[in-house]
Amino acid sequence: MAKSPRGKNELPPPIIVKKVTIVAGGHHGGAWKVAYADFVTAMMAFFLLLWLLGATTEKQRKGIADYFTPTLVKLRQESAGANGLLGGSSIVDVDNYPHRAGQTGTKALTIPRDTTGGSKDGAGRVQKMNRMKQVLAEKLNKTEALRRLARQVKMVDTTEGIRIDLVDDAQFAMFQLGTTVLTPQARDLLKAITETLNPEPGSVSVRGHTDSLPWKRGQVANNWSLSAGRAEATRQALMLGGIAENRFKRIEGVADRELLVQDNPQDPRNRRISITLSN
């Protein structure tokens, strides 16, 4: 049949094209299988984690965790100054190591007291100081006068060795006021100190300390010369007690630069003699 003629303003009929896409496999394709495999893998890992938590000890779990932690090289690279100009951490900043000192330190290293040897031999020094304390206490208990002086003696373990501090107070003075002359009580006290130090090996250092009380006008002496002179007077008293001259390592005076009572420089307890038996 012949088509009727189309008018001038009549639109042409639309042409519909139907495209059929054929998916290989359809519902039987492999996309859902990948998702299901991921789900099963995640569930297996989850149940494996639950099994590890229940079947291992705290120490074993810590070992497993340490195995999977990043290495120190990687952590150090992340904390170093490598992110542009001045873009890194300061040298005083805490490192981001997993076991840095800022987040650990809950357990201390315990050294048995009867242990000897090593570069510092800390346990041997403890035994030595305890022995010296016992010997000195026995000597100070011989007379009533020495027992009263026991409170003036302080024995501490330092990095340089065992230090014995002979400290003044309001009722006791090692030296006559403003001089290097030992008082009779101080001589008795130094005799007991000498008998304690003499059997022990090691060199001896003596340091003199003063308070910060000012001197009278016109006097040429000062706290530096006074502290050094008192240290020398103590050395001579120790030598008279029996300590050999070649055992002395250092004699010095530090005036009022190393105060015992920091908030009161004129406190009499700042006047003291420190005798150190080196390691």
What's this entry about, in short?
By secondary structure, this protein is α+β, with helices and mostly antiparallel strands. 37% of the residues lie in helices and 11% in strands. Among the domains are: 36-68, no CATH class; 122-278, OmpA-like domain (60s Ribosomal Protein L30, Chain: A).
The topology string of helices and strands comes to HHHHHEEHEHEE
The secondary structure category is alpha+beta
As residue ranges, the low-confidence spans are 80-88
Strand content: 5-15%
How much helix, percentage-wise, in residues? 25-40%
Rg of Cα set = 42 Å
Main beta sheet strand tally, sense and closure: 5 strands, mixed
**End-to-end C-alpha gap:** 127 Å
CATH architecture descriptor of the domain at 122-278: 2-Layer Sandwich
Shape: elongated
CATH fold call of the domain at 122-278: 60s Ribosomal Protein L30, Chain: A
Mean pLDDT over the full residue set: 80
Number of helices: 7
Strands of the largest sheet, in order across it?
Answer: 1-2-5-3-4
CATH superfamily of the domain at 122-278: OmpA-like domain
**Total beta-strand segments:** 5
